[in-house]
Amino acid sequence: MTMTLREEGERPGQIKIVFFPYGKREWFKKGISIFDAAKALGIDLSSLCGGKGTCGKCKVKIEGGMEALNALTEQELKHITEEEMKTGYRLACQAIPTTTVSVYVPERSRIGKQRLQTAGLEVPVKKLNPFVRKYFVKLPKPTLHDIRADEDRLLDALNAEYRLPTDLELDFEADWAVTAVKWKNKIIDIEPANTSDRCFGFAVDVGTTKLAGFLVNLNTGKVVAVAARMNPQIPLGEEVMSRISHQMLEGQKGIEELQTAAVSGVNEMIEECCEKANVKTDEIYELCFVGNTAMQLCLLGIYGRYVAFAPYPPVRRRGVNIRANNIGLVSHPRANAYHAPVIGGFVGADNVAVILATRMLDSDEICLALDIGTNTEIDLGNKDLVMVDSCASGPAFEGMQIKHGMRAATGAIERVSIDPETLETNYRTIEDKPPVGLCGSALVDVPAELLKAGLIDLTGKFVSEMAKETDRLRRGPKGIWEFVLVPQPKTATDTDIIVTQGDIRELQKAKAAMRTGAGLLMKRLGEERNETVTENDISKMFMAGAFGNYIDPENARTIGMYPELPLERVEFVGNIAGTGSRMCLISKEEREYAEKIATTVKYHELAADKDFQKEYMDALYFPHKNLDKYPDTVNLLRRLGHIK
Amino acid sequence: MGKKEEIFERLRQAVILGETEDCAKAAQDAIDAGIDPMKVITEGLSKAMEVVGDKFESKEYFLPEMLLSAEAMYAGLELLLPLLKTEETETKEKIILGVVEGDIHDIGKNIVKAMLTAAGYEVIDLGVDVPTSEFVEKASEEEVGVIAMSTMMTPTLVSIKDIEEQLAKKGLKRKVKTLIGGGTVTEQWRSRVGSDAYGKDAMEAVDKVKMLVEEIKAAVKLMEKKRKNRKQASE
Predict the structure, then answer these.
(1) Cβ-count burial of A87 within 10 angstroms (0-12 exposed, 13-18 middle, 19+ buried)?
(2) Model's pTM, two decimal places?
(3) Domains of chain B, with CATH numbers?
(4) Which residues from B are below 8 Å from A505, CB to CB?
(5) Does the ipTM exceed 0.95?
């Protein structure tokens, strides 16, 4: 729930350039072109001419501060269309900002690709029973002896052949046709000939940062194509709070901008999937969405101010059904769009989907689920009661506020290890490209490895005496300690890749928030159950979310991101919110179950918990202030000689 | 090292290391030795908190160390404050402090409170999710010059704007100066809503409060001078 758009005011002679969707930002000397700035940060911009303005490959979109650039150059006029001009496109090598600007690098101008994970555990549904069904019938032609209306003729035939009730509502402009498309108790279309084998739905997981879409054959329940996108809302606000602020500051215009952005992202995924699977977009008869509460509001075009103010009430809790084309979704003209129910202001339909797909509300044993994204939702409980809370985690682990942090894109370091003897580093980057920065999974490794190498202590402070052992540990600007992970000649940028004492502090805050979320739920669930809930009582931990799938569970445990459980109890389930979305799409029973989850799961407001400050302070230590909670980790650190 | 200086040093070490019991003990020893309590506060506790603030700025100290030091300081203050002379207590500048309406995150505010207390201000802490009207009422009811308010979240920034508007509407902006801070607050936001100062962290907040208090004093002096001049002119 924290902020991310921290502005640091002005610096004389310098300007700040922010690159989306990477989330990389830096100060530069005035006069630098956007192209050179991108290069300095290791962002791979397409270019054939090397920045002379002749190839026209390095098109970028200026999101904020168009007026803060030089005028279009002659070269640009040859490459930028009028349409692009209107929407803020420039050639990066020609654009020279005079004040702070935000730059969006569109997919086509990128060399490397963002890694977007979509796969999630496959969970069988209780029953394959989609709301949309197709019924092929042959109708008797009207005769002088049979002058029933077309409507009755159809309904009688459906009744005779499929035992459908005869009081179905008809929602179509009548045409002599033979495949009836039914959604719930409505005939929404009559299609010529037998189209009953062409019946599709589209399930979406609307993440704050990432969108995932699944084209599903409703007759079989099987996924036929998958797509993923960065959420196009990012330039309007990096996390949920900034998006709601955008609504508040811009009013109706802002509400519409956010909605249009989300819908355009979903439509792109629909078109991509349809092309891959050779499906027509109007063969999609229903869409199912799961998103956090703010994403639900942004998608449906609802004003979210009150969700952002304590005590954070959601606006619409129940599942919502609307006609998809009312909000501009590409699909059958009468397709239904269903948004699954939400639990609270900070626990949305995506978390309902997690509980649904992990089946933790059916479990005898107590389970813990961590869905790590920009926000992390934490669920704890079993069939008797599941409790949930949420905390901000993303900003730091998505690379925000971290000196050399970045999202998981080409060239991002995704794994780091430090040799405790030589204090030399080993690392692996995405697609094995020269390193550009550090993405979330490496940001979990870094503090764990520093700790195991004795370079930081349990409070997170760099151990200054270690500077005698290695040149990598040094004092940076203002005398603040930093550690060199990759020295410059080996990086794709023009600096060393380092981790600063300030970075460690940010990571401590993020990991402590998650640990506090789990710790306080254990306490409160224990109170509800009239027994203590300890690590031993947790039979399973589901690690969910795209980020969760890439992190090293042992390192995450070493830094105390979650309670110390045996590693074999940790199960990686990937994008399980997407799984839950698909389950709701293809099964009426699952959808009813989702509605039940939203009313029975108990929401716990973390920031209002009387023990929050104490728990959080204890959790800021590595792995925790109370070392008794981490016996295995303590043993390891003791063997390495870092704890006496 | 004199006995006095030795006790001060013990006090400072206790605060810097966040040792609550040691701090209380050293404060009691200072009292028993008959040292001026005001001096014990300024030479011992306040100096130590300055060191703690510096360590926090250089990232050597983090939130837990900071709060432990604050706790130690409060343990000392608890013994020393009741012994201050009336005029010493009365001349203390009062600062109203709170987290604005709609936000309940208060760790940052608590640190600011500790630093302001250490710097010798009397802090009136209104807590979290403080209704806009309460800030305004409190400011007019108490003889207060500075309101310090914070928020960590982006949407609740508007609550700061609401407070500024209310203060202006009630004609309080001349008497009352405002300081804002917290995770999402920026210098840009300050100039947009017309707050008087922005502190990027607890240490800067203290400097800015000092500055605002001086400004208020200067303004009061100027007003008195003008009044005197008017009086003379009318005579």
Answers:
(1) exposed
(2) 0.83
(3) 1-86 (1.10.1240.10), 92-235 (3.40.50.280)
(4) 59, 62
(5) no
